[in-house]
């Protein structure tokens, strides 16, 4: 009964792998760059996942619409019983959303599927940290956009619950929207960074055009989707979802806790 953890280098995959090991499970960590993870990790080619799936009963899977059909065929051939997919709350935005597309394909397999649908990650603040250390500023558009960001460990804890319960135990064919414990503006998040770390940071509210010039994103469509999303969240508190508490039995971790868990990030 081996559990395959894909996306081995990812923050959530690492936390899931640690939790499963602590729980005494037999796991196989797979990555596109297994050498970065030590001798026990195996190679994972999303276009040809069959070798990594041999002898596997459950899978923690990162979302990828391109390779999803190959995954379904290989997982069915390997006799996989449960797939827990790291999707996104954005999947609720309609069938054209990349996560919605992946959910649709992965759910067509013969195994039980559970879709984990987190909103914004607290770890997005890691990208702000590079700016803050270099310039003393965090430059973002729509500073008054609201989100209820979630700690990566809470996502991992929720995933662990579903994997440890296994298929046939109330999680099959379900989606779990997951958020952090409170909705707040990005401006407030930045103020919390200063409050907790003591590092003075100037929050700079960019116009959409300034943001377009400064955001280093290769995919223009993705950039415009993000800008439209943030614009839609200005002055609109994000509803807090009960998923973390429901699955883990503990309240979702706060952003203050996240900052304490990542010391030295902001200097
Ligand atoms: N940031 C947010 O606010 C947010 C919100 C909701 C959902 N999400 C979703 O969460 C995921 C990122 O999670 P994270 O923070 O753990 O990521 P991360 O730490 O940035 O790592 C990205 C991981 O994605 C894996 N990966 C990339 N392409 C893959 C593929 N085709 N097949 C399998 N694995 C693949 C990589 O695995 P390797 O070890 O193989 O390189 C890597 O471990 C993305 O799917 C993103 O859309 C993010």
Automatic annotation (TrEMBL):
State the InterPro entries in the record.
Answer: Ergot_Alk_Oxidoreductase, NAD(P)-bd_dom_sf
Protein name from the UniProt record: NAD(P)H-binding protein
* Organism phylogeny: Bacteria, Bacillati, Actinomycetota, Actinomycetes, Propionibacteriales
